[in-house]
Amino acid sequence: MHIHILGICGTFMGSLACLAKELGHRVTGSDQNVYPPMSTQLEQLGIELISGYDPSQLDPAPDLVVIGNALSRGNPAVEAVLERGLPYTSGPEWLRQHVLPGKWVLAVSGTHGKTTTASMLAWILEYAQMSPGFLIGGVTQNFPVSARLGDTPFFVIEADEYDSAFFDKRSKFVHYQPRTLIINNMEFDHADIFDALADIQRQFHHLVRTVPASGRIIYPANVAAIEDTIAKGCWSETVTTGEQGEWQCTNLQADGSQFAVCQGGQQHAVVDWGLSGQHNVDNALAAILAARHVGVTPEIAAAALSEFKGVKRRMECIADTHSIKVYDDFAHHPTAIQTTLAGLRAKVGDGKIIAVIEPRSNTMRMGVHKDNLAAACVDADDVLWYQPPDTDWDLADVIKHSPVPAKLYRDLNAIIHDALALAEANCHIVIMSNGGFGGLHGRLVEQLNKHAL
């Protein structure tokens, strides 16, 4: 079968393309901009990529078109699919029909940490020789690909609450029918499709409804939004985490680089690993407990995590030049920014932290989180904010209320110039964006290397 994917370079759709290719289909795809890291992975798999959405890409007609949720009516390729009556579906629905039947699905949901937690869980199962399938919305460093079918019934999936397609406004995750479900956290996000937190809770409860009675739902205790959602009706076993939960982590190192996994005061395992930050400790505990549901002991899970290498674009150190480290991070929400910077501060102590931030997500561009952005950066020494040209609001108020020195930019060259001026030995530059940031990452590293010569 020839499957053509519209919006193929997104992390979800690109991973789906890997699975379709592994199933033996001929896979092609297009995107507005064909860009790495996903384009690199797809090209290595021999998947033909087309830049743009000219309807000619549908000649001759594919057997099926899978339409990504970033595309809407008015897109030339979408209009051609509808006009010609070509068979089409959404990515989540294609997975439900062709990949997930008969699988023990372990789904990782929540506002933050889905990619990292799903990567941890897949690696724990791999380490335990359970050869899981997985689909992860990012490029994990423990596997050569972001998705595979696997050799056993176990399948780990990053379960996103974003909508499925322009013709299916349900959250992606309602298609997955998990037996093991992690809900990491729950906050208001995706303001382009949700009007309030209650709308998000409704979608999460649809997900809870699909977990069988023999299934298990893992979530942090004393998070009101989650507990209210569970209270609407839950038919599955639940396991809670956190200080008031059934399972806890006791930090043996302040930065989270070593911690103990405990149940009711009894220590089950110690994790000693390369990650840091309380958010990653929380992610790890959820992954350990999800793996426990399919028979992996906390001791084996802890040993696996000691070899966990992280995920690209999640505090990925992309350069270390003369004691100046540059990190690429995907942070797209004030909470993600705050926890990431807090984790780095705990790790580096008094070392200088420069945060370079592009508020690029749809919700950020709408200004929904603007009142919380300044305080989110309290652990940085300097913050360089970029004003994307198509944002609906002015970031000047964020600068005005910043608890640390901050400056607003509309020019990337000026950001690079000032970042270089602020940098010093034992300094950490964290670039935060859920997009390409105009190539700023590579340009900054190039200039750092030149200055170091």
TrEMBL record:
Residues 313-435 form the Mur ligase C-terminal domain. It comes from the Bacteria. Pfam families: Mur_ligase, Mur_ligase_C, Mur_ligase_M. Gene3D superfamilies: Mur ligase, C-terminal domain, Mur-like, catalytic domain, NAD(P)-binding Rossmann-like Domain. Pathway: Cell wall biogenesis; peptidoglycan recycling. Residues 108-291 form the Mur ligase central domain. It is an enzyme of class 6 (ligase). Its EC number is 6.3.2.45. Residues 2-98 form the Mur ligase N-terminal catalytic domain. One of its GO terms (molecular function) is UDP-N-acetylmuramate-L-alanyl-gamma-D-glutamyl-meso-2,6-diaminoheptanedioate ligase activity. Transmembrane segments: none annotated. ATP binds at residues 110-116. NCBIfam families: mpl (TIGR01081). Belongs to the MurCDEF family. Mpl subfamily. Reutilizes the intact tripeptide L-alanyl-gamma-D-glutamyl-meso-diaminopimelate by linking it to UDP-N-acetylmuramate. This is UDP-N-acetylmuramate--L-alanyl-gamma-D-glutamyl-meso-2,6-diaminoheptandioate ligase.
